[in-house]
C-alpha cells in the first residue's frame, strides 16, 4: 500500500469538523456536502466485516468506519467491492475511503495511500485438530491454503514487502509442497475442516480469523510458536488528495489516543490489537 503519513499526519492532532471542509481538500468537501462517507469494505470476512443473520453488515471494520464518520459528523454508506478493486486505486469517487483491514505493502503504495495504522494482526499457522504437526517445520512439503491477493499469499511465495516503519524483517522458514489459493478468507478453513491433508494440511491466516473459525466450531487449532509475521492494517484512500488522507490520519490517531481502537479490538477479537 502506500507510504505512511505517520510522521506529520499523526502529529497534527484532531481538527474540528467545523474547520475540516476548509482544510481537507476536495474529498472532504464532497463528503461534508453529501453528509455521508462512502466506505469500501468486505462482506464475507468475519469478524472484520460480514453479513449477520439479519443480512446486516457488522464487524470490527464496520464499527471503525462508523466511528470515523461519527467524528467527521457524517453518515456511512458501505460498498463491498472485490478485494482487487478496493486495493487497486483509481476509484474515481466511487469510494471515499476503504476500511477493510488492508496491509500497507510497497506494491500497493504505488496505487493507493495509507491514512494510518489502526490495528495489528499476527499471521498464524492453523491446522486440523487431528494434525500431528507441532511447529511450522512440520509443514515443509505440505499443502498450504491461503487467500489469494493477500499478504499470506505473498508470504508463502516469499515476496512480502510491508511498507511500514519499525517492523522486523520477514523470516521465511517454510517451503510448501503445494500452495492452494482461495477467493476469500474462510474458504481455506472450509477445506481444512474436512480433515488433515484431505485437501490441505494448513492455512496461513490472521490470528483473528483463525480464532473466529475456532469460535465457530471449526475443528482446527493454531500451531504454537511465533507468528509467521505481524502486519499493520491501515485505512486506505485513493491517490490524489493528501489533505483528505492527512485528515483521516488525525482521526485514527485520536481513536488510538482515547482508547477507542483498544476497546473495539477487544470487543471483536478478545484482545487488544491496537498496539
TrEMBL record:
| GO cellular component terms, A-Z | cell envelope
Q: Which SMART domains match?
A: PBPb
Recite the UniProt keywords alphabetically. Answer: Signal
Give its localization.
Answer: Cell envelope
- Its signal peptide is 1-20
Q: Superkingdom of this entry's organism? A: Bacteria
Record domain Solute-binding protein family 3/N-terminal: where: 36-272
Q: Which InterPro entries match?
A: SBP_3_CS, Solute-binding_3/MltF_N
Q: According to its UniProt record, which protein family does this protein belong to?
A: Belongs to the bacterial solute-binding protein 3 family.
Q: What is this protein called?
A: Polar amino acid transport system substrate-binding protein
List the source organism. Microvirga guangxiensis
Upper lineage: Bacteria, Pseudomonadati, Pseudomonadota, Alphaproteobacteria, Hyphomicrobiales
